[in-house]
């Protein structure tokens, strides 16, 4: 596809084919002289600059609303210029408004962030209804919404001020959004965050103090106590494709996968125990780790782009797909019999059946598969663009695997979760 488009910023690594959108901090920093920017570009992640601020107050305060549902304004701290992540001399604060949900959340409901990441919404596939949970101005970026249970979600905030970046929990019944206890206020860039399945532990990965290595912190969410901290991987100016950053807890919260860029242009994949120590030797080039259900088995992409399966913590890897690095972003079905990928070179969906050992491809100009149920994927439309990469079309579908038929659906599958 020609040369990669590179935005020269400290800490930036770009994958135009894969990452949904630039962050608000990146947009403000990259184009400070433009008041309104296009959000159609795909594939920019940048690490902005700034210095750690003092911790501000984060309690949400209610405001009046014309709606019958409670509406909560999420306040933002006052900041001095030293607290800016961007180079814009006066970026606006994120102004967020949360809404409570008055009816029970049913299983099968999807939570997702919009393609411009200024809203988080619920979508009921049975009725086709959409309810907005959180909205913000263009400097807000709400990322990685995930269900904790049927009345709460967690998400990550990315804004132009260091003090606004962090991990949050939303109580859907009250509309109250609060920072997770233990989420620090000094992230220049929060690349990833993940609550353990029981909610007792918070893992956050990002950049602090313009360090060249990523900082990993794991904290106790009841006390805020830091359990361990590690420096992993490498943050740099890097030419070439996207290098994913991921955090993945095992089902019992005992083990944590961390995938970060390395200094050698590639990935490093770490598997850590509750004390933050390596369970296995780091996998050079390893990416996209996925636990297989509640077991200690997992899959990952190796340095050659092949897909490997490991059936226990001490077992060796077995290659089950020999392919290229373009087959990425895996999503396991809930019955664990299949895994769906996005082929970002051929621009279609690939489904591998573990039982049959077979592969099926679906559609054209499609990406970001996300399982709605064991026979249905939610997918998004992608297209080539003049930026020498890919762009999202803004159209999304549900794909029935047994028939190959699709129908339009109002969900962004690139950043979504389903209540099971």
Word description of this protein:
This protein folds into two domains: 277 residues, Lipocalin (Beta Barrel); 87 residues. It has 420 residues and is mainly beta.
Largest sheet: 7 strands, antiparallel
CATH topology (level 3) name of the largest domain: Lipocalin
**What is the count of structural domains?**
2
Please report the total strand number as a whole number: 33
User: What percentage of amino acids are in beta strands?
Assistant: 35-45%
> Helix proportion of residues, in percent?
under 10%
Compute the separation of the termini in Å.
39 Å
- Structure class: mainly beta
CATH architecture of the largest domain: Beta Barrel
Instruction: Give the overall average pLDDT.
Output: 80
What spatial form do the alpha-carbon principal axes imply?
globular
- Compute the gyration radius: what is it? 20 Å
CATH top level of the largest domain? Answer: Mainly Beta
**Count of helical stretches:** 1
Name the strands of the widest sheet in spatial order: 3-4-5-8-7-6-33
Low confidence ranges: 1-82
Provide a brief overview of the structure.
This protein has 420 residues and is mainly beta. Helix content is 2%, strand content 42%. The protein folds into two domains: 13-289, Lipocalin; 328-414.
Which features would summarize this protein structure in a list?
single chain, 420 residues, mainly beta, Lipocalin, 2 domains, 7-stranded antiparallel beta sheet, 4-stranded antiparallel beta sheet, 1 helix, 2% helix, disordered N terminus
């Amino acid at each position: 596809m020609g040369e990669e488009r590179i935005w020269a910023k400290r800490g930036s690594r770009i994958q135009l084919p894969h990452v949904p959108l630039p962050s608000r901090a990146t947009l403000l920093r990259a184009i400070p002289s433009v008041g309104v920017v296009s959000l159609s570009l795909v594939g920019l992640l940048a690490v902005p600059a700034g210095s750690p601020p003092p911790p501000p107050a984060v309690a949400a305060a209610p405001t009046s609303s014309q709606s019958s549902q409670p509406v909560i304004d999420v306040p933002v701290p006052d900041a001095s210029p030293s607290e800016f992540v961007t180079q814009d001399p006066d970026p606006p604060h994120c102004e967020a408004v949360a809404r409570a949900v008055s009816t029970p959340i049913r299983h099968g409901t999807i939570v997702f962030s919009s393609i411009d990441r200024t809203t988080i919404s619920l979508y009921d596939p049975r009725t086709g209804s959409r309810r907005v949970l959180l909205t913000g101005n263009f400097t807000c970026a709400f990322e990685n919404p995930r269900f904790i249970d049927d009345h709460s979600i967690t998400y990550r905030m990315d804004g132009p001020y260091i003090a606004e970046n962090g991990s949050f929990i939303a109580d859907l019944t009250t509309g109250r959004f609060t920072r997770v206890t233990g989420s620090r206020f000094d992230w220049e860039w929060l690349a990833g965050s993940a609550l353990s399945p029981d909610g007792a532990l918070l893992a956050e990965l990002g950049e602090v103090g313009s360090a060249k290595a990523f900082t990993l912190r794991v904290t106790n969410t009841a006390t805020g106590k830091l359990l361990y901290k590690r420096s992993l991987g490498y943050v740099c100016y890097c030419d070439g494709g996207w290098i994913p950053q991921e955090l993945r807890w095992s089902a019992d919260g005992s083990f944590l996968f961390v995938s970060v860029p390395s200094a050698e242009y590639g990935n490093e994949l770490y598997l850590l125990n509750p004390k933050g120590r390596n369970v296995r030797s780091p996998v050079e080039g390893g990416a996209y780790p996925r636990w297989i259900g509640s077991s200690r088995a997992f899959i990952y992409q190796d340095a050659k782009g092949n897909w490997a399966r490991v059936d226990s913590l001490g077992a060796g890897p077995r290659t089950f797909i020999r392919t290229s690095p373009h087959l990425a972003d895996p999503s396991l079905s809930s019955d664990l019999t299949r895994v769906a990928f996005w082929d970002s070179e051929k621009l279609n969906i690939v489904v591998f059946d573990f039982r049959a050992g077979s592969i099926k491809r679906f559609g054209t100009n499609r990406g970001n598969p996300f399982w709605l149920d064991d026979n249905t994927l939610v997918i998004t439309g992608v297209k080539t663009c003049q930026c020498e990469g890919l762009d999202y079309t803004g159209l999304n579908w549900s794909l029935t695997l047994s028939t190959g038929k699709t129908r339009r659906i109002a969900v962004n599958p690139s950043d979504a979760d389903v209540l099971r």
